[in-house]
Amino acid sequence: MRTVLVSMPFMSPDLPSIQLGLLKAIGEQQGFEVQTLHANLDFAARIGAGYYRTLANSRGPLIGDWLFSVAAFGTEAPDPDGGLLDACAVELSHLAEHGAEHESGSRDGLRRIRDHEVPALLDALVGGYPWHEVQVVGFTCTFQQTVASVALARRLKQHYPQLVTVFGGASFDGEMGRELVRSVECVDLSVSGEADTAFPALLGALAAGTDPAAVPGVIRRQADGQLVATAPAPPRDSLDELPVPDYHEYFERAGQLGLLPASPRDQVWLPFESARGCWWGEKHHCTFCGLNGTTMRFRAKSPPRVLAELAELARRHRSFRFEAVDNILDPRYLTELFPALAGQAAGYQFFYEVKANLTRDQLRALAQGGVTHLQPGLESLSSQVLRLMDKGVRAAQNVNLLRWARYYGLDVAWSVLWGFPGETADDYAGQAAAAPHLVHLQPPEGSGRIRLERFSPLHAEPHRFGVKSCEPERSYRYVYPERLDLDRVAYFFDYGLDDALPESAYDPLRTALGAWGEAWNRAPQPSLTYRSAPGFLQIYDNRYPERSGAYTFEGSLSEIYLACCDRPVTAAGLRNRLRRPPPDGFIEAALAEFHRRGLVFRDENLTVALALPAVSGR
After folding, report:
1. What are the C-alpha distances in Å from 438 to residues 99, 468, 538, 544?
2. What pLDDT digit, counting tens, does each position of 491-501 carry?
3. In Å, how far are 279, 334, 366, 368 from 363, measured between CA atoms?
4. Which residue from 35, 275, 365, 401 puts its CA 20 to 30 A from 116's CA?
């Protein structure tokens, strides 16, 4: 069963698809001929890699799916006249800014891409590949890839009706996949959940002429329109048995299209997988998170297996940069994997998603092991809002992570979210008041209202959280034909809350975060550092150019401040750390004064110093 696995727009052009790379390796391990096709690269080359990235990174209205809607659904496409571009003009205004050079982001420019560039891409893909030699074509669907994949599948079916089309990925998990198989004619089969076992078993069934829907996780449509499906198998326990992903085709294609230089390749971050699921989500599912869908259970590769895979990927593809696709770091790696990497001194660089309660020592271990970029799930500087999220972390811990991440040179991707049931205006006023004292730390990349996602507790239990008027995000109706049940297809939903705050409640925080970002971009960057000797402390405050200077503290005051530097502490904990207990009320008065001067972050009963050591101790 010769098979081609396709990644359509709008997957990022800057890294290969781990879905394609892994399934290719699994299929070949089982004796099937499997090839990959990063067709997203062709579209990036066609419309310009820079503007393609803008579209791929766009959040909000489904502009990527809309661009392929007419090609996918023909006369059934609901928006041939471009109503989405008017209805969502404000949300899409950033596209015009980024596409100004070629006017590709204007209303006419987007219609030109839809009406000319998309058909030209599909013609080139259909005519430029030996599809007559292929029996199965598979599509991975995440990142607004669904409609582009349907568009190519429709074209292929018109020219090669014998082709079997198989769809999978996050967009086909649960009832989303069932509805798309039911209602989209060119979708022959879908795989729901993890495809490691289902994919080769499906190819085996097709080769043997048996019913592929007997394979766990596979869905097909009968002639009468009814679905035949087998429940997915339990998620794989041992990830060590998986092969190393194969990315050769990505590099060849990107080079041919002029998207990558032939050498060196070390600017490409290679996706790798060391764990699946979320160990925190198994215990406390964050209220707004829809990740993992039906496969929350946490599993991780052994550290020796990870080390071997990294070495193999580096040898194969000539890059030492790695992007972990894990939703959360396995805590075991802090003591077993990263110390081993530090000992190897291999020169690897890593991106990892982590939980934000990491300590200074743990962040040092990550940095020494090669981690340079973190996404810590840091979404608020209010402990009350974090409790509403069920994050299991305090605001002081978030601030402490930002402190030591800067000290150890770790780039942190984070944001501030709002719109949670039960929040108050004071929750955001407090963050706005704290932000000016944090300008020496990396600011958030963005801020805004949470999106209601399928599989999240907010979506699964709306009445528990006071969620009302929940319906598919409005751009879906500009993309999919009316005969599809959008309640079953949608991943994002518009919603209201019983006690929603007015948008004006967030304005002070928006302003403060904007000022933080501007301060961070100054040259030189703001800083707040300290040097100390026994009984003596100096803090150098260069956060604000108009009032830079130094603070000097001696005796108990210096001890109190230094005792807050490593991690957040309570007043009682501080008292236990001091050599000589001060008079009653002295510690609270000292912390209040430090706070007045913006030298500490206070979080209910916790306090953490904001200054960092002036001398690196890596």
Report:
1. 34, 36, 19, 11
2. 999 999 988 99
3. 19, 9, 5, 9
4. 35
